């Protein structure tokens, strides 16, 4: 593991400490988990953006055109 000096605003550290304690984790574990989650979100966003750029929207529209126009199943209404 590598070390990285990190300066954070006091309010942010206090909030992170509260959340770490609530989750029965050390502050270090919680920060690692939070950074890991943010990295996963960013990778997913990039993947979805890549798929959207390569999507064939004409095929998508043709596929949707085949779906029958019926009312939603009871309980699925908006």
Spell out the helices and strands N to C.
HHH
Beta strands, count:
0
Please tell me the overall pLDDT: 95
Alpha-beta classification: mainly alpha
- Report helical residue fraction: 55-70%
Describe the model.
This protein has helices at 10-22, 27-54, 57-65. The protein has 78 residues and is mainly α. Helix 1 crosses helix 2. The radius of gyration is 22 Å and the shape is elongated. The mean pLDDT is 95.
Task: Describe what is shown at a glance.
This protein has 78 residues and is an all-alpha fold. Helices cover 64% and strands 0% of the residues.
Keywords for this entry:
single chain, 78 residues, mainly alpha
Topology record:
Layout: H1 10-22, H2 27-54, H3 57-65
Helix pairs in contact: 1-2
């Amino acid at each position: 593991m590598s070390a990285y000096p990190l300066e954070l605003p006091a309010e942010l550290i206090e909030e992170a400490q509260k959340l770490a304690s609530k989750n029965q984790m050390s502050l270090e574990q919680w920060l690692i988990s939070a950074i890991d989650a943010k990295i996963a979100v960013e990778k997913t966003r990039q993947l979805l953006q890549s798929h959207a750029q390569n999507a064939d929207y004409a095929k998508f529209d043709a596929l949707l055109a085949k779906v029958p126009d019926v009312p939603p199943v009871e309980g699925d209404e908006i």
